[in-house]
C-alpha cells in the first residue's frame, strides 16, 4: 500500500534540521519521496500530520531481550528455561515497537534466544522490531554476565567461542572487558578479558564482516577494548584524554547507557536491589556523566542505548536516555541522531535505515509535538511503521 503523510514536521538527522511542512510517501518497498512542500502524488492512504513530527524509527543500541528488569535480573536468568526467555523476549519486542523503537541491538541473551527471535521476526512468525543479535556474550570464567554467557579463557578459547557464536548466526559479538554492577563478586572497574583475548574476537568478527561490542566500565578495560579494535564501547564509564583520543583515532563508537545506573540509584531502599549493586553503582554515576561530556566535547561518535533489562529498566526508556544526554550538553537534535543515523552506523546499517531518505526502509515514527523542543514528546507516539507497515496506531 502506498502511503502519504503530509503537512508534517520532519526531523532531518542527516543535516540536523527540521522541515516544517514536509511530505513523505512510502510503501513496503521503502521510502519513495521526501519533499519540503506539498506532494501532489496520489497515495492509497493519506494522513495530515499537522502539529506532529515524523522521524526515523528509533534504534536502541543496547538491550537485553529476555532479561526481566527485576531488582536482580541474573537470578531470574538462572531460573528461566529457553522457552521462558523466548516468551519474555517476544513480549519485550512488542513493548519496544509500542515505544517507536523499530530496531534493537541486542547485546546478550542466554541460549542465543535473541538470534532465534530475530529469525522469527524476519520470517513473519511474530511481530517485533528488527533485531541485531549477539546471542550469548563471551566472558572470562566467572566474568561479568556469566549466567547468560560463554565462559572462555585465553586466546584459543575466546577464538573458539567467537567462531561458535558466528556459526550460530550472531550479527555481532558481545565481549566483557571489565567487571560489572549486576554480577555478584565482580568489580566494575576491574579488567577481565585481556587485550589479546579481545583482539582475537575482533579479528574473527571482522573476517566474517561482523561488528563487536565491549562492556567496559573501568579505564584499563576500556583502553584494552579500544586497542583491540572493538566497534563500540558500551558504557565507557571512566574515560581519560588518552582513551578519548584512542576512540577518535580508531573510529570507536560510545554507547553510554546513562539511564541504567541512574534507575538503580533512584529506587527506594525497599526496592529489592541488592546492596552490593548499589554500592558498586554509586561511585560511578557522576564519573560516567563527566566521561560522557568529555567524549562529547572531543567529537567521539555516540550512539544511544538504554541497557534495557537491567533493574527497573523496562523497554521504552530511550527517550529518557536521550534526555539525560541532552542534560549533559548534547543538543536535542543530535541526541535524536544518536538514536537513529549514528545508531544505524554503529551496526553498519546506515545505508538502509536511520534517516528519512528515499530508498531507505520505511521505518518511521510519528509523534505529537516537537521532540527537538521537548525530547520526552518522543513518548507521545501516534503511529509506528516498520518496513512501511503500520505497527502501532494511537488516535
Describe what you observe in this structure.
- With 395 residues, this protein is an alpha/beta fold.
- The protein folds into 2 domains: 3-57 and 354-393, Urease, subunit C, domain 1 (Roll); 58-346, Metal-dependent hydrolases (TIM Barrel, Alpha-Beta Barrel), CATH 3.20.20.140.
- The protein is 34% helix and 23% strand.
- The chain contains 13 helices and 18 strands.
- The chain has helices at residues 73-79, 82-98, 113-122, 154-168, 195-207, 219-228, 241-250, 258-266, 275-281, 285-298, 318-327, 332-338, 341-346, and strands spanning 3-12, 17-27, 30-35, 45-48, 52-56, 58-63, 101-106, 130-133, 138-139, 150-151, 172-176, 211-216, 232-235, 253-255, 301-302, 364-368, 381-386, 389-393.
- Strands 1, 2, 3, 4, 5, 16, 17 and 18 form an 8-stranded mixed β-sheet that branches.
- β11 (172-176), α5 and β12 (211-216) form a beta-alpha-beta unit.
- The protein starts with a strand and ends with a strand.
- 55% of the residues are buried.
- InterPro entries: Amidohydro-rel, Metal-dep_hydrolase_composite, Metal_Hydrolase, Metallo-dep_Hydrolase, OTAase-like.
- Residues 53-390 form the Amidohydrolase-related domain.
- Keywords: Hydrolase.
- It comes from Brevibacillus borstelensis AK1.
- GO terms for molecular function: hydrolase activity, acting on carbon-nitrogen (but not peptide) bonds.
Amino acid at each position: 500500500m502506498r502511503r502519504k503523510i503530509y503537512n508534517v514536521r520532519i526531523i532531518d538527522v542527516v543535516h540536523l534540521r527540521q522541515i516544517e511542512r514536509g511530505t513523505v510517501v512510502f510503501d513496503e518497498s521503502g521510502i519513495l519521496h521526501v519533499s519540503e512542500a506539498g506532494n501532489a502524488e496520489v497515495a492509497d492512504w493519506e494522513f495530515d500530520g499537522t502539529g506532529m513530527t515524523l522521524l526515523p524509527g528509533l534504534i536502541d543500541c543496547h538491550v537485553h531481550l529476555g532479561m526481566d528488569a527485576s531488582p536482580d535480573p541474573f537470578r531470574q536468568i538462572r531460573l528461566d528455561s529457553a522457552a521462558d526467555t523466548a516468551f519474555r523476549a517476544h513480549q519485550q519486542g512488542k513493548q519496544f515497537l509500542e515505544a517507536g523503537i523499530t530496531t534493537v541491538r541486542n547485546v546478550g541473551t542466554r541460549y542465543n534466544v535473541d538470534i532465534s527471535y530475530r529469525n522469527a521476526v524476519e520470517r513473519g512468525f511474530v511481530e517485533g522490531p528488527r533485531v541485531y543479535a549477539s546471542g550469548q556474550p563471551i566472558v572470562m570464567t566467572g566474568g561479568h554476565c556469566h549466567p547468560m554467557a560463554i565462559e572462555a579463557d585465553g586466546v584459543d578459547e575466546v577464538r573458539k567461542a567467537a567462531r561458535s557464536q558466528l556459526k550460530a548466526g550472531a550479527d555481532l559479538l558481545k565481549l566483557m572487558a571489565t567487571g560489572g554492577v549486576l554480577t555478584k563478586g565482580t568489580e566494575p572497574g576491574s579488567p577481565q578479558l585481556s587485550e589479546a583475548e579481545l583482539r582475537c574476537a575482533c579479528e574473527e568478527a571482522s573476517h566474517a564482516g561482523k561488528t563487536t561490542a565491549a562492556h567496559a566500565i573501568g579505564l584499563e578495560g576500556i583502553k584494552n577494548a579500544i586497542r583491540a579494535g572493538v566497534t563500540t564501547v558500551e558504557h565507557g564509564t571512566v574515560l581519560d584524554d588518552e582513551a578519548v583520543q584512542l576512540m577518535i583515532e580508531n573510529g570507536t563508537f560510545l554507547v553510554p547507557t546513562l539511564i541504567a545506573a541512574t534507575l538503580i540509584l533512584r529506587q527506594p531502599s525497599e526496592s529489592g536491589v541488592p546492596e552490593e549493586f548499589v554500592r558498586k553503582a554509586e561511585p560511578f554515576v557522576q564519573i560516567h556523566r563527566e566521561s560522557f561530556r568529555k567524549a562529547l566535547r572531543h567529537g567521539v561518535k555516540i550512539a544511544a542505548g538504554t541497557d534495557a533489562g537491567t533493574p527497573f529498566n523496562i523497554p521504552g526508556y530511550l527517550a529518557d536516555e536521550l534526555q539525560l544526554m541532552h542534560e549533559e550538553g548534547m543538543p536535542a537534535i543530535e541526541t535524536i541522531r544518536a538514536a537513529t543515523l549514528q545508531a544505524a552506523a554503529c551496526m553498519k546499517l546506515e545505508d538502509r535505515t536511520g534517516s528519512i531518505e528515499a530508498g531507505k526502509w520505511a521505518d518511521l515514527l510519528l509523534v505529537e509535538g516537537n521532540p527537538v523542543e521537548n525530547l520526552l514528546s518522543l513518548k507521545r507516539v501516534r503511529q509506528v511503521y516498520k518496513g512501511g507497515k503500520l505497527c502501532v496506531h494511537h488516535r
